[in-house]
């Protein structure tokens, strides 16, 4: 049995003070939900405040990126040890980072390995563009990402990765995929390749999330699917009642 997993990606929203207000508004309720692994991913400047506030609760914290090197001349970057000082999780390879910050499968793979080496749980994002989807290339694109992004991991390491399937056309657009479609894509492009790469036990242990316009009103449609173990939530994670509704739907 895979434990349901819901993460909020706050993107470039919330100052540290605003983050504290949001956490204060939802933490007491979130902390009552034992059945779901819950993770908040604020911007880096708010991470220390959020991590202090959730200390002693069941809620985890993650950053939205990290660099694979241990230290050095990488202006603006966060090393794995810096992230691990405050967090247990890190989002890697989000489509916005791939599109706007030149992230490639090669760098995603290095970041996944660096995160695991520092005891962080990577929330590794994959997904096709609208153009690729309309050209019937979804399976080819997502299988390619999974294979390249997780290349060289041991089965034990692979089992610790949380994979988020986020069709790019569904992110922030209000046009979510259907639960059935997301389930089919996840089975064919993530679960099956993981089994080929790492064997059944590891493939069955990996939590796979759906991401893309998840809201309180459609979350149950995704969480009722056999292959979907939770959600990576963008916009709806910025409002306490919306995020709570999604987490409750996963419980
Ligand atoms: C995301 O950016 O990971 C995401 C899923 O965004 P939204 O929920 O706003 O579509």
Automatic annotation (TrEMBL):
Keywords: Cytoplasm, Gluconeogenesis, Glycolysis, Isomerase. Its EC number is 5.3.1.1. Substrate binds at residues 9-11, 172, 213, 234-235. The keyword Transferase does not apply. The active site is at 94 (electrophile), 166 (proton acceptor). GO terms for cellular component: cytosol. InterPro entries: Aldolase_TIM, TIM_sf, TrioseP_Isoase_bac/euk, Triosephosphate_isomerase, Triosephosphate_isomerase_AS. Pfam families: TIM. It catalyses: D-glyceraldehyde 3-phosphate = dihydroxyacetone phosphate. It is found in: Cytoplasm. GO terms for molecular function: triose-phosphate isomerase activity. Its main location: cytoplasm. Pathway: Carbohydrate degradation; glycolysis; D-glyceraldehyde 3-phosphate from glycerone phosphate: step 1/1; Carbohydrate biosynthesis; gluconeogenesis. GO terms for biological process: gluconeogenesis; glyceraldehyde-3-phosphate biosynthetic process; glycerol catabolic process; glycolytic process. Homodimer. Belongs to the triosephosphate isomerase family. Involved in the gluconeogenesis. Catalyzes stereospecifically the conversion of dihydroxyacetone phosphate (DHAP) to D-glyceraldehyde-3-phosphate (G3P). This is Triosephosphate isomerase. It comes from Ornatilinea apprima.
């Amino acid at each position: 049995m895979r434990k349901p997993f819901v993460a909020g990606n706050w993107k470039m929203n919330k100052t540290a003070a605003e983050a504290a207000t949001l956490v204060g508004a939802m933490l007491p309720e979130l902390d009552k939900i034992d059945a779901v692994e819950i993770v908040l991913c604020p911007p880096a400047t708010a991470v220390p405040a959020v991590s202090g506030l959730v200390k002693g609760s069941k809620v985890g914290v993650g950053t939205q990126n990290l660099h694979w090197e241990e230290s050095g001349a990488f202006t603006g970057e966060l090393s794995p040890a810096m992230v691990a000082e405050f967090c247990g999780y890190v989002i890697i390879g989000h489509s916005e980072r791939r599109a706007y910050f030149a992230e490639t499968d090669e760098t995603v793979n290095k970041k996944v390995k660096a995160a695991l080496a520092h005891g962080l749980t990577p929330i590794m994002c994959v997904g096709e563009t609208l153009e690729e989807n309309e050209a019937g290339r979804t399976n080819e694109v997502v299988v390619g990402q999974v294979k390249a992004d997780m290349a060289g991991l041991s089965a034990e390491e692979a089992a610790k990765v949380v994979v988020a399937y986020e069709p790019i056309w569904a992110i922030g657009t209000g046009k979510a995929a259907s639960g059935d479609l997301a389930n089919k894509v996840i089975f064919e492009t993530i679960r099956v390749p993981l089994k080929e790469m790492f064997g059944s036990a590891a493939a069955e242990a990996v939590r796979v999330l759906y991401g893309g316009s998840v809201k309180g009103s459609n979350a149950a449609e995704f969480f009722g699917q056999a292959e979907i173990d939770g959600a990576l939530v963008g916009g709806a994670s910025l409002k306490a009642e919306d995020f709570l509704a999604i987490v409750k739907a996963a419980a």
